[in-house]
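[step 3/7] fold_predict: job queued, chain A
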Amino acid sequence: MTNRPVPQEQQAVVKQQAVDDRRLLALPALLLGGAGTLMQAIHEGVEQRGFTGVRPAHGFAFVRLAPDGASIAEVAEHLGVTKQAASQLVEELLRRGYVRVEPHPRDARAKLVTLTERGWACTRAADEAALEAVRAWAGELGVDRVEELAADLARVARPGRLRPLW
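[step 4/7] structure written:
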């Protein structure tokens, strides 16, 4: 076998592909960083509104509990955790006054977990904090660019459950 020289135009294409790949690989870190920044802003905003001791995982559970409640098994499935872990999380939220646990109206073996008024107030505080964070992005990038970004992400992001990965 002989090593044939690679034509210059082909070398240029290979170099450009490497540059493009490096740029593309920056996107996952930026998206995750943006999500982390948003989650931190929501967390801090919730605390500033008087809801201390609430963790991001609680917020993910609140999403499943609104509007009609859920069983512990449904919370576990939504969060991607064991029923035991979901039960512990629900117990913590119950002690803090964010949820109530009642007999399930359709399943005698299960309990229905619903948000209390305090839980709903915390959810509203999280929504307000999220809006503040996105408004800051709009102030930096412009409203039109943020709307374009949202539309672009809606085209490629798979809709579904949001869950913590920790």
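[step 5/7] annotate
The mean pLDDT is 88.
The two ends are 52 Å apart (CA to CA).
exit 0
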